[in-house]
Amino acid sequence: MTRALRIAVADDEPVVREYFRKILPVLGHEVVAVAADGQELVDRCREENPDLIIADVRMPAMDGDQAICHICRDRPTPFILVSAYSKPATIPDGFGSIRWVYLSKPVKRIDLAMAIKQVCGRNGDG
Amino acid sequence: MDERDLFERYQDLQAYVDWTSDDAARIQRARRLIQPRIHLLVDDFYEEIEKHPAAARVITGGAAQVERLKASLSAWLSESLEGRSDADYVARRWRIGRKHAEIGLNSAYVSAAMSRLRNGLLDILADAQLARPNARQSQPRTLSGQFCASVKSINKLLALELAVIQDAYEAEHLKRERLAEQERSEVKFRRLIEAAACMVVILRPDHSIAYFSPYSEALTGYAAAAVTGQDFVMLFIPESTRATIMMHLEATLTGRPTKAYEMPILRRDGTQRWLVWNTQRLEDLDGGAAVLAVGQDVTERRDAQERLLRSERLAGIGQMITGLAHESRNALQRIQACGEMLELEVEGNEEAMRFVRRSQEAQDHLRRLFDEVRGYAAPIQLEHTLCRLDAVWREAWNLLEANRQGRSASLVESTDGADLTVSGDRFRFVQLFRNLFENSLAACTDPAIIQICSRNVQFQQQDALEIRFQDNGPGLSPEARQYVFEPFFTTKMKGTGLGMAIARRIVEAHGGEIAVGDVREAGAEFVVTLPRTIR
Known about the structure:
The complex is a heterodimer. Chain A is α/β, with parallel strands linked by helices. In chain A, 37% of the residues lie in helices and 21% in strands. In chain B, helix 6 (87-103) packs across helix 8 (140-195). In chain B, strands 2-1-5-4-3 form a five-stranded antiparallel sheet, with helices on both faces. A five-stranded mixed sheet of chain B has the order 7-9-10-12-11, with helices on one face. A two-stranded antiparallel ribbon of chain B has the order 6-8.
């Protein structure tokens, strides 16, 4: 069982944002930031310094993977990228030492749970 | 040339050498002198022949034949001295001339022999002349004139005889040469036909087969002897195309050849081969026109084209589906999110929870459909390991446990100790078996029994494993037999109709073959052949 994580989420779909807000606490975590585009995600993460980022790839203003690049330059953070593609088109550079996972939509609760465990592990390292 | 032509020519020759009735009269007078001495001429004639091997070689029958020949020559000489020259006479002399060609005597020797006869005849006349009593010495000129005239007549006679003989000789010789040439040409023709890897048939105007080449025999499975004389159209052309083919044949007979016309023909075993045909009119087959048809087997090329088209179509479908699936994901994500949030809301409300769960199942199904279609169109990349196929199909069977819930279904293995190790992609093999089982389970009513048998076989000169799947369902309709492996073909209400198409793709990616088994009384049979190692 992973310890309670402080998670930042980003998705341009309102329903999906609401979903993360509701489901992640059920899995035992806290949602500390909710963004609707990549730029907002960068700003909110600077404020909150989350343990984990869950972001949609395709978003207005800035894509999720781009946003995470910016964030991790300042402060390496484990992340989960969610996309409509079945596999990564390009793997962002410079993420070598950071743990991350790629999920294909539609993402289920159980997929999230497994991904979080994979990325943040039993010992909660991040 | 007919007898009248021969006689006319002879008369023309007579005019040429200036033959008159006086000559005829002189010959008849000379005959009295010559007749008693003919046997001497004949003996001399054949004595001389024996001295010349080139001439003597035509006499193969020994002394008996020589005796017969002497008698013939004697008769010939006697007859020529009768001074006749009617049409019948000319025809007979002509036949004698032909005989010389038939026995293969060189015509130069005929001329030389004739000259010898001439010398003999003139000697006889001269002897008779010298032996005459010198009664009227006062009239030596007249006697000399008479002698010269007789000599001239003999010369004319022999010239005419020789001309007839040589004429006949030449005619016969030419005829034989033509026949030999025709035979050589026919031999060449047959060799050409036999070497050519295409069907060659010759058809009479009534479509009966006059010639059926050896390659045609091999391709169709019919012996030439069995089909010669039969109607080609009725025997080889599928009913639906007969009218068109007959039109083409008619056109060809009127001199409009057909080029590069693709048309299937039926083999003896009922299968079809596609050939591309050229036809043309033959001027003379037993005195009438005929059709020469040459066809090249293009079945494999057509199959290859079909496969190419299929893969292109697939690529098109794949692209479309990929686009569709991609677009749908966002919508599916929203549905998923709402469904899960709804679940949280209605926790405790059994009825509502039931609806939510069913909605979730439907979504899962939809997602699987997208994955299946995308998987079908995408190129297959294989990872090779050695697989024990019995372990693989048991795993596939277990994966279908959910499908088998509430059903009576059993898997019977009769593998007879065959080696079930095959090199290939284990994941794909599981998929293959799963699709085959699913197909049978969907078709069968309980109790469903699926039987697997396997044996070693040779496939395209490699060691291979043949696996037969038999179920106790209703079997395959003729339509299903033809289309069961086509994508999107399904007789079920559910499903994409891709299961068996994917199965075929997997088998073919491993270099193998999948086919519907022979028609049985009950149930369907599928035969999968997998080479043991992938080349």
